[in-house]
Write a structure and sequence with these properties.
The protein has one helix spanning 3-22; strands at 51-58, 68-77, 83-94, 97-111, 117-131, 150-164, 168-174, 180-181, 196-197, 200-207, 209-210, 215-226, 231-241, 245-255, 262-275, 279-288, 299-307. With 323 residues, it is mainly β.
Length: 323
């Protein structure tokens, strides 16, 4: 077995371990509280003015072939404040595997007398899975599973609900509803196994607490579930200083079927700064506390965001977008 193949095999095994322990098949984001379009189509328009967010994540730095993800998402409310529209493009690279996805989101929003809104959203998702198996050097040159590259187009749909007000939000979502096959022939040759994009379930919530004239506390949580794998729970706590500087920390853990107990994955530190309430820049660092800590220096995530126009131009229950 060549050195290159051993590296690829190690990455694949670690990805399988991560999926088993923390249900990661979809791209993972530490700054989920600022990247709602990646999780829930009902988030579209909720910042109450046109907004665009770009995010780059380098997971498990130092490991060859480890996940690298880029996403660009934009969304806006229509002027009647009933509709939210959004779209995104994302590229997720793991070793010789690459997923490029395009999505369009539509949200219908109901406003209540207490200045809260209930948003119900749907999305159409177009995925292209590319597997460059020919780049892998194997000991068996005649293995049909590594004899050619594969490119598979797989459409899907997503749905979600998002309820929010000036200082809180609660959301549940399924970013893709279909357990679609991502293998061109349906099954790998010589096996009964089928590669699928499995359905993921998300639940998120957050709240803003006044703690003084220039300080707000922002607890939030994300729960993720995939059938037949352990669940993932990620509580976060942030501090917003003078409506501009946000400092936060999260703890990612898995629990459930693989062993039945809790398993630690990462401790996360985050910072975000808002310029003139239009431009945002953020950074997150994941310190790995699982056994992968012996092989990686951690994970890095960078976010850039911009919101167009003045908030007062749009009908809104929020004067300041806290999430």
């Amino acid at each position: 077995m060549t050195t290159h193949f051993r590296k690829i095999t190690a990455v694949v095994l670690m990805l399988i371990a991560s999926t088993t322990a923390f249900a990661q098949q979809d791209a993972q984001y530490s700054m989920y509280m600022f990247n709602g379009m990646a999780i829930n189509p009902a988030y579209a328009g909720s910042r109450e003015r046109p907004a665009i967010t770009a995010l780059y994540r380098h997971q498990w730095a130092g490991i060859a072939g480890a996940p690298k993800t880029f996403s660009l998402a934009g969304h806006a409310p229509l002027l009647n404040d009933r509709i939210g529209l959004g779209g995104s493009i994302a590229s997720d690279n793991i070793g010789v595997l690459n997923l490029i996805s395009f999505s369009g989101s539509f949200a219908y929003r109901i406003k209540f007398n207490n200045n809260t809104k209930l948003s119900v959203g749907m999305s159409a998702v177009f995925n292209n899975f590319r597997q460059r198996f020919s780049e892998i050097t194997t000991t068996n040159e005649n293995d049909p599973n590594f004899a050619r590259n594969i490119s598979v187009f797989s459409p899907n749909f997503g749905a979600g609900v998002y309820y929010y007000g000036e200082r809180f939000y609660v959301g549940v979502s399924i970013p893709h509803l279909l357990n679609a096959s991502i293998n061109e022939s349906g099954k790998f040759e010589g096996t009964d196994q089928v590669a699928r994009q499995y359905r993921h379930y998300f639940a998120t919530a957050g709240y803003v607490i006044n703690a003084g004239e220039h300080l707000k506390i922002k607890p939030s949580v994300m729960y993720k579930y995939v059938n037949n794998t352990p669940s993932s729970l990620e509580p976060s706590l942030g501090f917003l200083i003078k409506e501009a500087l946000w400092l936060g920390a999260s703890y990612r853990m898995g629990f459930g079927k693989a062993g039945g107990g809790f398993g630690s994955d990462a401790v996360i530190g985050m910072v975000e700064y808002v310029f003139q309430k239009n431009f945002r820049i953020g950074y997150a660092y994941d310190f790995t506390v699982s056994q992968l800590n012996n092989y990686t220096s951690g994970s890095h995530e960078i976010m850039l965001g911009y919101e167009f126009g003045k908030k007062e131009t749009y009908l809104t229950p929020r004067r300041m977008s806290y999430f």
